[in-house]
Amino acid sequence: MYRKLWLAVVAIMLCLDLNAQQSEQRQGRKKVGVVLSGGGAKGMAHIGVLKVLERAGIPVDVITGTSMGSIIGGLYAIGYNANSLDSVVRKQDWSYVITDKEDLRHQSLSDRRRQYTYAFSTGLSFSKKKGREGGIIKGKNLSELFGQLCTGYTDSLDFSKDLKIPFACVATDIVENVEVDFHSGRLPQAMRASMAIPAAFAPVRLGDMVLVDGGLKNNYPADLAKEMGADIIIGVTVQGDAKKADEIKGTMGVLSQIVDVNCKNKLEENLAITDLHMQVNTSGYNTASFSAVAIDTLIHRGEEEAMRHIDELKALKKRIGIDDDFRPVIHHPLRPRVMTERQHVKSYIFENMTPQDERFLRQKFNLNKTDSINASLQQQLTTSMRVDLFFKTAECRLLPDDDGVHVVLSAGERKTAQAHVGLRFDTEEYAALLLGLTVPLKAAVPMNTELTVRLGKRIMARGEFTVHPRSFTRPTVNYTFRRNDVDVYVGGNRDYNILYNHSQAEALPINFDYRHFNFQAGLRWDYLHYRNMLESDESADITLNNAHYVSYRARLEYNSEDDWYFPTRGARFKAEYAYLTDNFVKLDGKGGLHKVSADWRKSFTFGRRFTLQPMVYGRLLLAADAPLIFANTVGGDWFGHYIEQQMPFAGIGKVEYVEDQFVAAQLQAQLRIASNHFVLLRLAGAQHAAVLKELFDHKTLWGVQAAYFFRTMFGPLGATFGYSNRTKEPYFYLNLGYEF
């Protein structure tokens, strides 16, 4: 007890001594204000300038900013120096942060699969209250990031008294068309309002104000620094000259031009009161240049620009009233571990949630026994509130209190429905459209209905009902109707076409989800109605009769890959067992058909760009003659693309039947070029036979494939070339969009 009291007294004395030192340093010298302009991603250059100011021994007594300048300035004001800011911005996945994507790494595989199937998702409201958000991007991930980085500063504060460096930022109220200066309030909210680029990001609503990017009224707020008592002003801008007509290309080029042209308000007046102005060269980059290479270059250019003014900075120290040996106290600590550091939890507070919601979160995340929290757990909690509990918005705030924090989980309005749209084009099926609608149902236990429709050469309609109890299992029932139009090839030549309707109902009382794992077990009913078959002379003896089947199934899936299409780490494994009958016991009066299938893939990355991915897979049909519609097929790039039993094989582009016992291995080499360009090389080999004991008695099936892909917002765009010893001719395949 006495030891703790003594430590507290010492800490207080040290703080008093530190404040005294700072006061002594300020006595007899002028107050320095640093002004950081807006500019989206180009504002990363501010970090490089701050690095040089620290090395040059320039004190920062006041800091103001707009848009990205408000983010860099606000974080600097609460305790991040330039090196820690450099670390923080490099660690972010900006392709996630500046979108409204959910962080589904810790959610179910079905939720993750949905994210890599649909190109667009949006909330729908069938109530009389219309959505008020506005903007393509709602900014929920940005708000979440700001809340995490500003831990300890998320309550309403006086920015001049409660932050380590007095701070102010600018937004624009589009109701009154006036500048709004933030000197107090919730810091994450102020930063979020200051950078809400109109139409791109939803505005922040505060009282009767609708706030957007402050750059529309005051993109370089040197006047705020002056009003806050700055005697000497050092300012940084990142805007370039307005582009000419032939230089404005693409959506981001148009948006960047709009921002740059409309950020001239008060600029000349504010530059006139600036003692040292630094204009960073950001040519070649725009407001959305958040790639790792762009961030590195922009920070470096900021450093270079400041170093060009190093003699002026040294001369400025004399005007400030300090000598060359002066070094300001950097009283804010480095915080590069802010996204991983854990804090002790004193309590959990639930806002705008029912007792059932609270119980669900407590049990799912074992909160009654979880006494610490970090940024990862914060993200998991807010994602679960949006995905599992269907809230449009969710917030996890940490309120410091002595030796720990109080965790506040605050929910917004519940979703009425969520709509999804997927688009794809390929050279076999041409165009296809996938529409999805997820409707949460009001109940004590979370549950939802999902409706899916696929339009194209193949038509599909699916309805699914899922219960989300507090455990990790999600009991599910579903019904699917498919109208399949399948071309079957032999040796690369089209042999016949089957047109049929496929009705399928499934009950999965066991549907267990835990992070990367999913285990399902249940009963399935299939009914196949054959409408037409266009046959060749070779297939004339094939007879297809309408039939129904009942099967008992168990599926296990594991997926820890970091990307659904171009993984660089992690593994994927899937195994399924099914017992197929036509009367719950037998098939055609004999024992039922046993089906065993599995596939495994693992990624090994060498350096930053090259990845090797070995894969083994196979499908075995045992104990009975397999109905043709369930027999093994290979071809294409994906499992189950045209029909359920389809397996991919490099070098074979069309659907071809193989024997009942089939095993294969594939080695893929993946090279990433720049950020979103990929070159893939595949080599595959397989053995197949009518009976298992003869599996390796037949000639090996082999194929090779080369592909180039570009990752777009609609999904991968790519071209594939292949050859196999089965088809004995090259094939070409063009694809745009996610697979469905």
What distinguishing features does this structure have?
single chain, 740 residues, alpha+beta, 16-stranded antiparallel beta barrel, eight-stranded mixed β-sheet, 16 helices, 39% strand, disordered N terminus
Task: Explain what this protein looks like in three dimensions.
The longest helix has 25 residues, at 2-26. Helix 2 packs antiparallel against helix 4 and helix 2 (45-55) crosses helix 13 (292-308). The chain contains 16 helices and 37 strands. The strands form 6 sheets. A 16-stranded antiparallel barrel has the order 16-17-18-19-20-21-22-23-24-27-29-33-34-35-36-37. Strands 1, 2, 5, 6, 8, 9, 10 and 11 form an 8-stranded mixed beta sheet that branches. It has a 4-stranded mixed beta sheet with strand order 13-12-15-14. The chain has 740 residues and is α+β, with helices and mostly antiparallel strands. The chain is elongated and about 100 Å long.
Number of strands: 37
Describe the sheet with the most strands: 16 strands, antiparallel, barrel
Question: If you compute it from the alpha carbons, what radius of gyration comes out, rounded to the nearest whole angstrom?
Answer: 31 Å
The averaged pLDDT comes out at 85
Number of helices, counting only DSSP H or I runs of 4 residues or more: 16
Q: In order across it, which strands form the biggest sheet?
A: 16-17-18-19-20-21-22-23-24-27-29-33-34-35-36-37
The global form is: elongated
Q: End-to-end distance, in Å?
A: 65 Å
Strand content: 35-45%
Structural class: alpha+beta
What is the share of helical residues?
Answer: 10-25%
> Can you tell me the residue ranges where pLDDT is under 50 for at least 5 consecutive residues?
1-25
